[in-house]
Design goal:
The protein has 167 residues and is of the alpha/beta class. The chain contains five helices and six strands, in the order ββααββαβαβα.
């Protein structure tokens, strides 16, 4: 259906699924991951993540949303930025495509993404936005879903709007 850019806390999104920028061990981390775990109920979410075991970079797994508005949390492990010549773009693209396909498989009509890998993993924000928008747009050309790209800070939100305008 649509891709919308929003300035909000992803934990507040009233969608079928939110995406967690996870680490490959599916342990509670900082940033977006820590906020999602805290809002969902860290103990229950960690127990379910531990039962899954892990998530390879570029892949996605799904858990319950627990205390969130979202029914599901889709966890995807983004790539660490190593300068751009280590397959980071394809791995990041896979994060979005695999998350969207998992949402579709679970009958989700709406999904919210953070900007994966652009925090402590160091992916340059403008490049990460381009990868996200291109992957999501490709998916939406063949599938019906409301997709939100959620920026927490005003600065990142404005950067997102500017970058999308340049694409």
């Amino acid at each position: 259906m649509t891709l919308q850019i929003v300035n909000d806390n992803i934990c507040n999104m009233k969608v079928d699924a939110i995406v967690n920028a996870a680490n490959s061990s599916l342990k509670m981390g900082g940033g977006v991951c820590g906020a999602i775990f805290s809002s969902a109920g860290a103990d229950k979410l960690q127990k379910e993540c531990d039962s899954i075991g892990g998530c390879n970079t570029g892949d996605a797994v799904i858990t319950s949303g627990y205390n969130l508005y979202a029914k599901y949390i889709i966890h995807t492990a983004g790539p660490i930025w190593r300068g751009g010549s280590s397959g980071e773009e394809e791995l990041l693209r896979s994060c979005y495509i695999n998350s969207l396909n998992l949402a579709l498989k679970n009958n989700c009509k709406s999904i919210a993404f953070p900007l994966i890998s652009s925090g402590i993993y160091g992916y340059p924000k403008e490049e990460a936005i381009k990868v996200a928008v291109n992957a999501i747009s490709e998916f939406l050309s063949a599938n019906d879903m409301d997709v939100y790209l959620v920026f927490f800070s005003d600065y990142d939100y404005k950067l997102g709007l500017k970058t999308i305008g340049d694409i």
